[in-house]
Structure to design on (122 residues):
């Protein structure tokens, strides 16, 4: 959930304030029984897959160590789960064998649990 840092009355202690947008997104997910997005990190690469009403949303981010943050590399909305799954696996493959194996295993667990889609025929 998006949270805004807020200085608390306890000096160095930090409390957080929820934004309206983050609360609306959270409530919408609960009401629609939507799963949290799939997220996996392979080195400096962060891959996300989120499903909303009509689209499978894929995003790739890169960790910037000097800035201690992420830069968006690409973001694409697909109508077909096959296209979105192919995109996330192609980007994981670009990071090497360990990344693709880890991504396939974790993505398969996520897809089977939430959408009854099995991408492994083992």
């Amino acid at each position: 959930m998006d949270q805004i840092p807020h200085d608390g009355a306890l000096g160095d202690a930090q409390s957080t304030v929820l934004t309206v947008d983050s609360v609306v997104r959270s409530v919408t997910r609960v009401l629609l029984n939507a799963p949290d997005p799939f997220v996996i990190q392979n080195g400096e690469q962060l891959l996300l897959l989120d499903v909303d009403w009509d689209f499978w949303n894929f995003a790739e981010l890169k960790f910037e160590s000097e800035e201690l943050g992420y830069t968006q590399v690409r973001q694409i909305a697909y109508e077909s789960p096959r296209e979105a799954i192919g995109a996330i696996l192609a980007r994981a493959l670009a990071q090497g064998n360990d990344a693709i194996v880890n991504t396939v295993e974790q993505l398969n667990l996520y897809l089977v649990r939430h959408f009854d889609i099995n991408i492994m025929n083992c």
The longest helix spans residues 97-115. The chain is about 35% helix and 35% strand.
